[in-house]
Specification:
Strand content: 35-45%
Structural class: mainly beta
Order of helices and strands: EEEEEEEEH
Number of helices: 1
Radius of gyration: 13 Å
Distance between the termini: 5 Å
Shape: globular
Strand order of the largest sheet: 1-6-7-3
Number of strands: 8
Helix content: under 10%
């Protein structure tokens, strides 16, 4: 997959890492989200270092896939994470290829 995440960014800090171990897409930059929905109940994610972070919001994030605008669905907005993660499992569930 060749993708810019989010679309039209070139800053190396705005990189998304494709991660086979991530259960969900997770991003920290709220400006990338098309819309925002709060979880009905407080929810959290645990990162590889064992820390727990609250999920602030979730929704879709647009990105360019080989020049075509598409959306990653059900992306978690987790303010405290330091790396933006794209879940291989979620990509495949959404009918995309890795």
């Amino acid at each position: 997959m060749t993708a810019s995440c989010p679309p039209n960014t070139s800053n190396s800090e705005n990189v998304c890492f494709v991660e086979s171990g991530a259960s969900n897409h997770m991003m920290s930059n709220v400006e990338w989200f098309r819309e925002l929905r709060k979880p009905e109940q407080p929810d959290y994610v645990e990162t590889g270092d064992g820390t727990i972070h609250p999920i602030q919001h979730f929704e879709n994030v647009p990105f360019n896939e080989e020049g075509n605008l598409t959306y990653m669905k059900n992306v978690l907005h987790v303010l405290a994470i330091t790396k933006n993660l794209v879940s291989v499992g979620q990509i495949m569930e959404q009918g995309m290829q890795v």
